[in-house]
Amino acid sequence: MTDWGPGENHIVLQNKHKQFYRPEVFGEAETYNKSVPLFINDIRNSIDLFKTYKHVSFQMSDTLMINNWPINQAEIFGRIIGEKYQPEKDFATLTIDDYSGSRSIFVIRMTYDNILESNIKIFEENYGKLIRMVGHFHNNQFKVDNLNIINNNDMEIEFGFWSERVEFRETILRNAWKFEPIAKSQKVQEEIVFKFSQRELQRREEREKLNLTSDDMVMTSNIEDSLVVHENKANEIIVDLTDSPELKAEPEVIVISDDEDEEYQFKLKMTNIIKKCLVVIIENSFEVTTLKELTENESVSKLIQPLSQKSLIMKRIGVYFSKSDLFSVEGNIINSFKFDQIYHNIKKYLNEKTNFNVVKYVNHIKLNFNVNVEYKLINYLINYILINTNKNWIYLNDEKKFIKQTNLD
Fold first, then answer.
1. Rounded alpha-carbon distances, angstroms, from residue 146 to 51, 160, 175, 195
2. pTM for this structure?
3. What are the boundaries of each domain within the chain?
4. pLDDT tens digit sequence for 166-195
């Protein structure tokens, strides 16, 4: 249990407008441990934590701060203004802009595995397409958990994204966060227990060793703020999305892939090859095929040829199809009957439903089709279907659920 009263030991620094609190109480903010809608410009103009928190900031690499609100998860959007593909390196970059200010550009690095899961059509002209990303902050970078392209009614949807973020800034971010602890002496029966995120619990012991000096506790009025608010002659509050002239304008690089070791990269390449094999089977109407025919298909062989260890790759492909519940293999013949059933069953669900809970569906096909598959494969098949039917769904990563988007009035 944490008792912050009766003093102000929960405050790191303050001025006449706001207070900055210790990381241990971030979990009490309504912007923390949940995905919040943000403009790219606001992210890139967020507070320099070192200037405010000094040495404590080194323990806060998973946190962004706007005004004095702590944020560790966010949803952003933008239009693609640049794309570069390097298939020989299993690598691609997308540059997006949400036009929210002079620092509204992100450069996204991603593997081909990420591309295949994100509704992006490789090597096609994607300039100007609307993209939505959900992710978290880690090691001072924005890590993307889910990314998808909006194909239909994108102007209306983009307007909705803007409205959502403007409302969030007006109702939440514009006003400073106020944390008011309750002392033990004020409690009658129930004790107040502050809840911390998992990362904070792991680091809390280290933070206790960091004693704030009197210099850290001084009153100041020049704290750098990411949310600039002005009052006009009519006393209307206007949120300024522009930058100060001295701010640098280099695009921020956000990373989707976490690990760069060779084994991880090999697994990614194998995953891409298997997924391409599945696409070939779908495009060939689930006809009986052989492993040789499958791997000699132009789109599959294009992924295999640049790689070394081709014999190991061929063996891994064969092992996948022989062990998968979606296929039956006799000799060198691959039968896709169950895969055909599941694929068309998913299409039926998407046509009839407005939400698709992936975890529940995995349990459903296990019970009704006697098929064990990972939810990521179902995600991939859903995204593939949505690409080819131009239907607008969004994916809620925390809930492992797809939600159908309706037209905005």
1. 32, 19, 30, 27
2. 0.49
3. 1-258, 262-404
4. 999 999 998 999 987 765 444 444 444 444
